[in-house]
Design goal:
By secondary structure, the chain is mostly helical. It has a domain at 12-123. It has helices at residues 15-35, 43-62, 65-73, 80-92, 96-108, 110-122, 129-136, 141-154, 160-165, 171-184, 190-195, 202-214, 220-230, 237-246, 249-261, 268-277, 283-289, 296-307, 350-360, 378-387, 390-403, 416-423. The chain is globular.
């Protein structure tokens, strides 16, 4: 979207405005990293944010060298958003030297790597052809991993490079190769993924199990993922989601029961798992949790994941409790800076939800696996990808792939205009 050459100025651009473009590009990228996993954001809302980011990036491009200098000055802060803005400028101006410096920074700093990958995923595939080819041929495994990440983000098969990366000595490169193989639907690499289930690096083994399951395995990888789901010290949401969607219905029900029995009280991971399981027999229990402030919002989200009911749209909400503090506080002595993952979820009114459910329950016979209001089929998953909230869309992208191994995982974090084109 930002490939037109910068014009020649009769007078220099206004420094304060260009600085604002650089700062807003970085800041909005940080916001975007939260919203792509948010429970209250739909694709058209993500599009509005992406258009704002695009406008600020265009402002940097129009400012020419001054815009590039402002973006690079932000690198002193070293955040993912600052690297994102600087990298987009470098990619659009085809500044290979600047990209090399950013790639070196990404090899040393995880935040910088996330920012660089974001930029590679943001620009068009045409703008990356020579750049990614050089990355895939680089001697450094970190650069090859970034190149594979760019291919994955654009849904482009890198070919033979991918198979060789699965055998590389570098663990980070093996992980990126497993992610690419799974999300690109490379079923020919299923055996290679299964071979990495015994990898000495736990993170490699975890990504191998996820990849093998997405590529069609329903034995060894499921056993690995089930064992991971039962380990109480690990709360790996993606692995649990995949295993509950992929395994046989009866086995999935028993797995959730086992997780629940091992929990001394209703825990977030149990409630979340009930939503992913899609067992309508659990709906009454979820409604019972809704009056309890600690679990109300996540129980409401699980209820919606099963039934497809939009609590806000149906006016099934109650007011938030008085004095509620959500997310990081302004207290400098407070060490807890974690975001509230229930933030922006509606507060369900248990009585109203119960009344709605009593009128609707017969639509869902007992023992039926329901996903956002209907049986999980490829067509229904595509409907959720068009109309659902981001967390529902993440689940739909994985579910569609599990139903049809070899189907690429839909890129729910891609620029919204690119997603809209694919869905059209």
């Amino acid at each position: 979207m930002h490939s037109s050459p910068a014009p020649t100025f009769a007078r220099p651009p206004i420094a304060a405005i260009v600085q604002q473009h650089a700062e807003e590009s970085a800041m909005l990228r940080h916001v975007r990293s939260v919203l792509v996993r948010a429970p209250h954001v739909k694709l058209h809302q993500l599009r509005r944010l992406d258009d704002r980011i695009a406008a600020h990036l265009d402002g940097l491009a129009v400012a020419g060298d001054h815009g590039t200098a402002c973006a690079r000055a932000g690198l002193a802060r070293g955040g993912a958003g600052e690297v994102f803005a600087a990298a987009v400028c470098a990619l659009e101006s085809q500044d290979d030297a600047a990209l090399d410096k950013l790639a070196s920074l990404a090899a040393a700093e995880p935040d910088a790597q996330r920012g660089l990958l974001s930029a590679l995923g943001w620009v068009s595939a045409q703008q990356l052809q020579g750049t990614v080819r050089r990355m895939l041929a680089a001697p450094e495994p970190q650069r090859r991993a970034i190149g594979l990440g760019a291919c994955r983000l654009h849904g482009v098969d890198p070919g033979l490079v991918l198979a060789s990366a699965l055998q590389d000595a570098d663990a980070a490169l093996r992980i990126q190769a497993l992610r690419a193989a799974a999300e690109l639907g490379r079923v020919d690499l299923l055996d290679a993924a299964l071979a990495l289930l015994g990898d000495a690096e736990p993170e490699v083994a975890r990504h191998a199990a996820q990849a093998a399951c997405l590529l069609g395995d329903r034995t060894t990888s499921l056993q690995w993922l089930e064992a991971a789901a039962l380990r109480e010290e690990i709360d790996d949401a993606r692995s649990t989601l995949i295993v509950l969607q992929a395994t046989r219905w009866e086995r999935a029900v028993e797995l959730v029961r086992t997780i629940a029995r091992r929990s001394p009280e209703p825990q977030r991971r149990v409630i979340r798992a009930c939503g992913w399981l899609g067992d309508v027999r659990l709906v009454p229990w979820l409604i019972e949790l809704m009056p309890h402030d600690r679990f109300a919002r996540i129980a409401g989200e699980a209820f919606s994941m099963i039934t497809g009911a939009d609590l806000a749209a149906l006016d099934l909400e109650r007011k938030p409790p008085q004095g509620l503090e959500s997310g990081p506080t302004d207290d400098p002595e407070d060490d807890d800076v974690a975001l509230d993952e229930d933030d922006s979820l509606p507060w369900p009114d248990a009585a109203l939800v119960q009344r709605w459910w009593a009128a609707q329950a017969e639509r869902w016979p007992a023992g039926m696996r329901s996903f956002v209001g209907a049986p999980a089929t490829p067509a229904h998953c595509e409907r959720v990808l068009r109309e659902g909230y981001q967390r529902q869309r993440i689940a739909a992208a994985l579910q569609r792939c599990l139903l049809q191994p070899g189907t690429p995982v839909f890129p729910v974090a891609a620029p919204a205009w690119r997603q809209q084109r694919r869905l059209a």
